Amino acid sequence: MKKLFAIYLLAVACTVTASAQFPQMRTVEERTQQKGEDVRRVEDEKRRLEGEPKVTQPVIKPSVMNVDVQLVLTKLEYKDFATAKPFNVTRIADGDPLWLYFKFNGKLGDWVYTMRNSDGTERYLLFAEYGPQGDVTAKSHQIIEFRKDELKITELKMSLAPGKAGNNNALEIFIKNISAARPGLWSNELRISRNAGFPRAANDYLAKIGFACDFSKGISKYPAMLPGYHSMILRDSLDERILPIQGKLDDSLARASFATKLAEAGIVPSRIYFAADNWLEYSDQSISVRQYRKVTGVFLFQREGTCFYGTADIVQPFDAMNNSFTDATVSLGKPILTTCQ
Fold this sequence. Notes:
By secondary structure, this protein is α+β, with helices and mostly antiparallel strands. It is built from six helices and 16 strands. Helix 1 (2-12) runs antiparallel to helix 2. The model is unreliable at 5-20 and 23-29 (pLDDT under 50).
């Protein structure tokens, strides 16, 4: 797993939306400086990998972009890719609900990046990017991780806005970026790759889908949608009285950091869990080389005979020097009344 993080760190040097539509902007000087840093990091990574035990990686099946993997973007939810395809949109307005459909030539397992760790475990990944059309140096990144039993699927449907609970039922990279856009007319795209290395060539993508963002009258609805999006992916509802759905993730180090933070706040939980199956791994820094992973923790407790629950944002930054994610930062949310269990 550490090997993937180090390889993927190379990708972060080219991160996050940097056209005028976003607050972050890259100058020519910054791009030139970043190019030099890219070369240095590639050389450092090569030296590091040469010193690690060799792990056999699977042979990558050749692909044709937008043929072996196809994408469709719609404003309404449809049953499947075929039903959605006639309603593909190429222009969106502020606040439009959006769904992204994937169609695989064969099975998903034919097109994922399979990372074999030295301990014998495997991870099955795709890499999502968001950025201005044609600007390969300015983008944000997110890892999409699949379970082994999901590799047999032939289609995938993800909510971009307003969000949906469940493993890989939503793709956060869209709302994170679009909510930071500025008024204007912008041409953006979503890209899907299985290539963990960087920089990526034009043919390193499985699929791309472009769309114009018409925010000529301003943008306010997408930024206002962020709290609702987070509620939807946690519980499939805007009603925060509903407990977040428990996921399959259980990280002992994150759990320890979580418990320590609760103890510091004087909270003795009767139960804690994580509301996700996997960490959300992402980078959204346009210039600095930073990668993070995050998950939402949930805690239940009683106070003077009254039952409460709360959520916590648990974030771990990647430490390139130690080739690992570091101690988590835990931010506790405000407790909410709930029924005693």
